[in-house]
Amino acid sequence: MFVMSQPYSFPAFCRSGRSATISIKYFITMIENMDQGVLVVGNDQRVKFANQAALKIMSVTQGQVIGKSIQFQPLTFEDNFKHGHMQHIISFDDRKELIIGQLHAVQDQWLFLMAFHQSHSSADFSCGQEGPQIEAMVGECRPMRQLKKLISRVAPSPSSVMIAGESGTGKEVVARAIHKLSDRHAKPFIAINCAAIPEQLLESELFGYVKGAFTGASANGKTGLIQAANSGTLFLDEIGDMPLTLQAKLLRAIESREIQPVGASHPVQVDIRIISATNQNLEQYIAEGKFREDLYYRLNVIPLRLPPLRERQDDIELLIHYFLHLHTGRLNLVYPGVAQDVIDFLKRYRWPGNIRELSNLMEYLVNVVPSGEIIDMSLLPPNLLSSGEAASQATSSASASATLTQEENVTALEEMERQMIRDALSRYSNKKQAADELGIGIATLYRKIKKYSLAAGQN
């Protein structure tokens, strides 16, 4: 449950809003048809109704949630609406939940529109033993929404998946989410980091060995990780670091669906789905002879790309509060507020360590912020401040340079666009056909015609 770090009056906030007058029947029908989770909350801070999307998100029934008391906390402590409706965090009186969303005034009650939900009882974002569902992939920016949709589509398939992304972007989180959404979810998920195990041990770890296979081997032999993943999923992290000799053996295992433990005289049948991950350019490795092309195509049937955190600016604030909540709950500390200038600074920061770096920073901050106070700029580590300021200056310089280049090119681009539209209008007397030819909407075409003073059939 959240502990307020400063007083916050829900009724006072309610009085500051503007009510809408709509019929109850239309109101209920409207929110039931929304894909987004919605809670209807009275001025007494108790839930009056939840739509089906909200019930599904929280895995509860209507009876279990109606009448429950909830606590509201602004996502930041600047009490204004310059960015639209304020984002809020809510928590229930008897449920350990993290729900972030927006409050909207409707008559004498409030709608809480869910943007993100995480249950304390569900798996940890940093890859707990049970592994996360796709909801644990925190992020609502466009690349993350597209990635989640793609994962939902490909998870049931037995085809191999290759996840590309920088270190710290959460590749294993994605792999575990795919496994949890697949038909193999009740079977083992076995993860191995190919870069963390010495080359001379990697073969026996992957394929296992029989009794007496080599000096120092266990007297009882050992089951390899591939065999341990039978009927489940094998996750090969840092696949680019696998030695070429083992790449050949792995390729044979994929093609024949059987493995031969070290020292064994007979192969063992296996049924596994392989998910691999890399932060390296495997196409370049292939050109340099460091990675087998045939294995690459076997593993890269379904390619997924995880965006680095610097490409997910819209998710930074959400992730900040997610990790603050995660670490304060785990460490039994008071949940702090965050000053807006801190959030703005962290949005500009480049995050070379990606999600992992952000999580570590939030854990540091919840340990050093005085109880009951908010996180301000003075609490940020000096090395972060210096690198963040340097990155900000570099970005400003690059933006200025880019602006000059864009100004030089804009006239040429507009002239090119004008010519393309004029050609299409010359070929088609029907503006709808011309718009289809150009790949734009009819309304856009009319705006462009007005902008460039063009007319149908003009030469």
CATH-derived topology of the largest domain: Rossmann fold
Distance between the first and last residues' Cα: 69 Å
Low-confidence stretches: 1-22, 76-86, 119-132, 397-410
CATH architecture of the largest domain: 3-Layer(aba) Sandwich
- CATH homologous superfamily title of the largest domain: P-loop containing nucleotide triphosphate hydrolases
**Fraction of residues in H or I helices:** 40-55%
- Please work out how many helical segments DSSP would assign: 17
- Overall mean pLDDT stands at 78
Q: Work out the number of β strands.
A: 15
Shape: globular
Biggest sheet record: 6 strands, antiparallel
CATH class of the largest domain: Alpha Beta
Q: How many domains make up the 3D coordinates?
A: 4
Domain Sigma-54 factor interaction: 137-367
GO molecular function, one term: ATP binding
Domain PAS: 23-69
GO biological process, one term: regulation of DNA-templated transcription
